[in-house]
Amino acid sequence: MMPSGLYVLGSAASGRRNLMTLNWASQVASDPKLVAVSIEAGAVSHTLVEASGVFSLNILDRKDRAIVRKFVKPLDDEGHPTELAGFGVESLVTGAPVLDLAAAWVECQVRQSIPCGSHSLFLGQVVGCGQRGADGFEVLRMEDTRMNYGG
Predict the structure, then answer these.
(1) Edge-to-edge strands of the sheet including 54-59?
(2) Quick one: DSSP state of residue 43?
């Protein structure tokens, strides 16, 4: 089961990549494993996920709360395959960036997109996942920051 928290969503399409702070995410099915993310319609990440049909969801450890604010605006992508805006990233199954400092992550292929006014809900099937942190790490949550929205 996916923990509730404050995440960094990775997206990529047409040679552009982005990482975005996001808090509206949830596992919505177990067979197949489906994750739902809600992304603001005008966001760069929305455009990239819509175009590519993939996204990554990076789960951060609470100790990394200071960096989550770095992803509230679109990032400058200088085209270095292992770096995005000064952060180490890697491209795994989907091509959406996965943060080197993520304690865990899931990569998803969009199965359905539902327009919801100001946001779209993307339902993604998990096609890859991993963990770098120790079992039992504490997931970064909204209340660990002064933020009240990410998405």
Answers:
(1) 16-22, 7-13, 54-59, 104-116, 119-131, 33-40, 25-30
(2) S
CA angle 44, 42, 77 (to 5 degrees): 15
pTM for the model:
0.90
Burial of 136 (0-12, 13-18, 19+ CB in 10 A): exposed
Q: What are phi and psi of 29, to 5 degrees?
A: -160, 155
Q: What is the 3-state composition of the chain as percent helix, strand, coil, each rounded to the nearest 5?
A: 15, 50, 40
Specify the CATH number of the domain 7-144: 2.30.110.10
pLDDT band at 2 (very low <50, low <70, confident <90, very high): low
Question: Is 10 in contact with 17 (CB distance < 8 Å)?
Answer: yes
For 146, other C-beta atoms within 10 Å of its C-beta total 8
Q: What is the mean pLDDT of residues 129-135?
A: 85
Vertex 93: Cα angle to 81 and 9 (nearest 5)? 70
Number of helices (H), then strands (E), belonging to the chain: the values are 1, 10
